[in-house]
Write a structure and sequence with these properties.
The complex is a heterodimer of chains A (114) and B (113). Chain A is mostly beta strands and 114 residues long. Chain A is built from no helices and twelve strands. The termini of chain A are far apart. In chain B, strands 2, 4, 5, 6, 9, 10 and 11 form a seven-stranded mixed β-sheet that branches. In chain B, strands 1-3-8-7 form a four-stranded antiparallel β-sheet, with no helix packed on it. The chains are: A mainly beta (114), B mainly beta (113).
Chain lengths: 114, 113
Amino acid sequence: AQTVTQSQPEMSVQEAETVTLSCTYDTSENNYYLFWYKQPPSRQMILVIRQEAYKQQNATENRFSVNFQKAAKSFSLKISDSQLGDTAMYFCVRGSSNTGKLIFGQGTTLQVKP
Amino acid sequence: DTEVTQTPKHLVMGMTNKKSLKCEQHMGHRAMYWYKQKAKKPPELMFVYSYEKLSINESVPSRFSPECPNSSLLNLHLHALQPEDSALYLCASSRMGQGEKLFFGSGTQLSVL
């Protein structure tokens, strides 16, 4: 099955601390994309970070970085210096170049506490 | 312009009503999507249009009818919906529809009474 698994339904972190969200996926494809999207209470789906599977270098975007382990099919998101505005549901997503579909994980709800 | 615009933002309809959701993008993207999302769940893919042709239909009931009048517009026509169809409906677009990143609209919150 071509699945994306987020094993942490809920997490919390203190403001200014660092938190890591886990994600594993299953695929038989060689070329694919990986994303983390966040969905705050406004429910607007926002792209946080993107990784192309053929690139070994981990993507970074300001306070957000990933640890991409292709052989292990793991794609975790690290948020540094957490801010109250980071409170949201975070979805790990795999994009299939073959089918054009995006496969979403079940999501991790992150609460940043003051 | 990097926005996907959806209207209306909220919609309440009865089970016998006919209504339409609208989505527009001006990024030159050639793939457009409809997703349905229940609270605290991931979005579920409904339809994909690629180059204005329906390329994916995820076995959605016929009471949902998509339409892509041109490369910038995507509609979702609703008729005889059920209360369980109440959800957030998200429109998205992507450059080529090959698994690359999606740009999402802010959604239409639909309530069926």
